[in-house]
């Protein structure tokens, strides 16, 4: 229970369904402070108190579990390391993968609980063979299946998402008000939870040793200078402060971050259009497509690809290729996704999630994104 309205209503529905429910708030921040600022941040003392009040209203036990050390190691340190390597990570994916549905679920099962129930907008259904499948929620505007794409079949067996079929967030808030939950009108949290002021670049500057370097265009010509390449991300337009305008007078965008030589490459917007994505650390949310396993491994299969939590899915074809070990079932296999229509500004470190209809097939961390125009 984060202290927000979604998890409070999810807990209420679980109680109403007859489950034996215990509310757990995760203490993830070692220095939580006492107050939120509007919709920024989470895991504060205020959030913990809101979760406790909701549990008190529902008549269920409430506990705070301190996962701050594991959160720092698995999410915050990973975030810093990825930016230091010139990639753009998604900390929500890592938190779901390593904290909420790994550390939390492991502890819950060890204590004898059957499932972790959360306020995520997503759905678990049973396939024709009885195995669990992850699907989009009824309200696509609030759908959070993308950030749950890292869940495995074993984890989905122990997940409950009571908000799956709720048609809108407005209905959740109205239900919270009817139930007398004090969080009914509480703002949603946004941005990166451990960067409460929203200034990612400023926060990174305190974590990573930044060094001045050059900004070059797609031909390698110096067009400006920067204070640290690690603070930039592919697709960025603002904050470049270029000394030399583009020949056509149009804005330039970050095309690539090269941490090894501390260089930022910029160019026209059209060179951000990506047609091929190569992903590593592949996982499947349930049974993988037949073409991705066994004797048919290496064949293309049709899917939709999504690279942002609230991005539009794009029709694509995907296949697995051998990684360094050369073994089809190996964790180091490479997922190659060819897009029917280009996506703009795809950065290494982001996550590509594959769908078929409403079903989540699986995900991979983007290792490379290829612009055919830039290759040409």
Considering the chains and any ligands shown, give keywords for the structure:
376 residues; Rossmann fold; SH3 type barrels; Elongation Factor Tu (Ef-tu), domain 3; 3 domains; six-stranded antiparallel barrel; four-stranded mixed β-sheet; 8 helices
Describe, in plain words, how this protein is organized in 3D.
The protein has 376 residues and is α+β, with helices and mostly antiparallel strands. The protein folds into three domains: 5-178, HUPs (Rossmann fold), CATH 3.40.50.620; 209-267, Adenine nucleotide alpha hydrolases-like domains (SH3 type barrels, Roll), CATH 2.30.30.280; 273-375, Elongation Factor Tu (Ef-tu), domain 3. Helix content is 24%, strand content 26%. It is built from eight helices and 16 strands. The chain has helices spanning 5-16, 45-58, 68-84, 91-110, 153-156, 169-178, 200-207, 372-375, and strands at 23-27, 62-66, 116-117, 122-126, 132-136, 159-160, 213-216, 222-226, 253-258, 263-267, 273-284, 301-306, 314-321, 334-344, 351-356, 359-370. The strands form four sheets. It has a six-stranded antiparallel barrel. A four-stranded mixed sheet has the order 8-7-10-9, with no helix packed on it. A hairpin with a 5-residue loop joins strand 7 and strand 8. The longest helix has 20 residues, at 91-110. It is globular. It starts with a helix and ends with a helix. The mean pLDDT is 89.
